[in-house]
């Protein structure tokens, strides 16, 4: 009898242990799934997933650093004019050297302490990606607010394209520009893939920086969230250098979305191709700026007028044609007809890979311009 009882008790204990193990396994799987959904919708480890291959994702949950005013003052030599490197929408931007040797960019503005400010910093500083400028921390003291970012040494792409006194022809040949475009596209695609999704709202060529290896890093993602409500003047015949990057639905209704970022990215690509600001007239005898010209490109047969002459013979006609077709899709006036950034990433990757392959096989003296009618016979 005692043997039977012992067997029953032993079997019951084994069953309880088995149930416990099953519950632990279920809990582990559910926790892992929740973790994946928090990081990114493109964080797939499936090698057949093209977006997962191209958009590298990482969401760090480390503690956001709170800097002291004294530390920032020492880093910038009391916010001296020599440390001032620019002025942006948030405020003045200073270059600083922290006591641990790290070089940072410090954005400064007047503002009362706010928990909303801190919460936004915590959210944005947790987003990490190879092609995004990292927000390191913040400071709120003496009715001033500071955002501290990693410093990117080679400045903005705009300064290399049309900045005064900079000669970067060697660095910015066509394949280099494609590589920069691909990196910036990956950065944008990453923030669009987060849950909840983040819209940049201020993407422009000046906000694409390049590091010492000319790797593109998108700056100021989400910065407009600190600025409160922004009023837009609406349609105007005089478009500023910043407004040219705004999609029609943003200028008219203030309606931001992932697709408005795509429009801005298309304008960025146009500046990469032309080497000029998009507000410039397409040619000396044109009444259209570069964006308007591209949007009406079916009526033109001479795409060479918008291509940066400094590119020389560093590109193939096929590669340039496909890139301009992608630009046309991105700056489509209708937001519904624009592609997603994940598609833009895949297209740029494909164009770059083909361009590298063709120029390697055919050499750098490949003919580089074909008629616009040939380039765009398949568009729209």
From TrEMBL:
Is-annotated flag, keyword Transmembrane? yes
Q: Which family does it belong to?
A: Belongs to the protein kinase superfamily.
Q: Please name one Pfam family that this protein belongs to.
A: PK_Tyr_Ser-Thr
Q: Which domain of life is it from?
A: Eukaryota
- Name its cellular compartments: Cell membrane
Could you tell me one molecular function GO term of this UniProt entry? ATP binding
Question: Transmembrane ranges?
Answer: 6-30
A cellular component annotation (GO) from this entry: plasma membrane
Q: How does it sit in the membrane?
A: Single-pass membrane protein
EC category name: transferase
Protein kinase domain residues? 79-352
Q: What name does this protein carry?
A: non-specific serine/threonine protein kinase
UniProt keyword list: ATP-binding, Cell membrane, Kinase, Membrane, Nucleotide-binding, Serine/threonine-protein kinase, Transferase, Transmembrane, Transmembrane helix
| Enzyme Commission numbers on file | 2.7.11.1
Q: What are the binding positions for ATP in this chain?
A: 108
InterPro entries linked to this entry: Kinase-like_dom_sf (IPR011009), PERK1-13-like (IPR047117), Prot_kinase_dom (IPR000719), Protein_kinase_ATP_BS (IPR017441), Ser-Thr/Tyr_kinase_cat_dom (IPR001245), Ser/Thr_kinase_AS (IPR008271)
Which residue positions does the secretion signal occupy? Answer: none
PROSITE patterns, per this entry? PROTEIN_KINASE_ATP (PS00107), PROTEIN_KINASE_DOM (PS50011), PROTEIN_KINASE_ST (PS00108)
Enumerate the catalysed reactions.
L-threonyl-[protein] + ATP = O-phospho-L-threonyl-[protein] + ADP + H(+); L-seryl-[protein] + ATP = O-phospho-L-seryl-[protein] + ADP + H(+)
């Amino acid at each position: 009898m005692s043997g039977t009882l012992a067997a029953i008790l032993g079997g019951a204990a084994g069953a309880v242990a088995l149930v416990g193990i099953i519950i632990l396994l279920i809990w582990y799987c559910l926790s892992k799934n929740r973790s994946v959904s928090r990081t990114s919708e493109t964080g797939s480890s499936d090698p057949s997933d093209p977006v997962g291959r191209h958009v590298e994702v990482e969401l760090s949950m480390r503690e956001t650093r709170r800097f002291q005013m004294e530390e920032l003052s020492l880093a910038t030599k009391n916010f001296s004019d020599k440390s001032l490197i620019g002025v942006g929408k948030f405020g003045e931007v200073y270059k600083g050297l922290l006591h641990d040797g790290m070089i940072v960019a410090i954005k400064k503005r007047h503002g009362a302490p706010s928990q909303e400010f801190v919460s936004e910093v915590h959210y944005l500083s947790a987003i990490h990606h190879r092609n995004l400028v990292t927000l390191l921390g913040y400071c709120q003291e003496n009715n001033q607010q500071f955002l501290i970012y990693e410093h990117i040494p080679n400045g903005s792409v705009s300064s290399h394209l049309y900045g005064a006194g900079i000669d970067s022809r060697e660095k910015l040949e066509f394949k280099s520009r494609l590589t920069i475009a691909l990196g910036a596209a990956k950065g944008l695609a990453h923030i669009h893939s987060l849950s909840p999704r983040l819209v940049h709202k201020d993407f422009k060529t000046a906000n694409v920086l390049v590091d010492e290896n000319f790797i593109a890093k998108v700056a100021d993602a989400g910065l407009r969230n600190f600025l409160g409500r922004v009023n837009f003047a609406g349609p105007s015949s005089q478009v500023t250098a910043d407004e040219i990057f705004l999609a029609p639905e943003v200028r008219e209704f203030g309606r931001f979305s992932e697709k408005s970022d795509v429009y801005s990215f298309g304008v960025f690509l146009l500046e990469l191709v032309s080497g000029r600001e998009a507000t410039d007239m397409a040619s000396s005898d044109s009444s259209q700026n570069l964006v308007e010209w591209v949007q009406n490109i079916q009526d033109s047969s001479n795409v060479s007028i918008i291509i940066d002459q400094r590119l020389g013979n560093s590109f193939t006609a096929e590669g340039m044609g496909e890139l301009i077709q992608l630009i046309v899709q991105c700056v489509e006036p209708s937001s519904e007809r624009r592609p997603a950034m994940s598609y833009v990433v895949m297209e740029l990757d494909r164009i770059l890979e083909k361009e590298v392959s063709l120029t390697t096989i055919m050499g750098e003296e490949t003919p580089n311009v074909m008629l616009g009618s040939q380039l765009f016979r398949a568009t729209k």
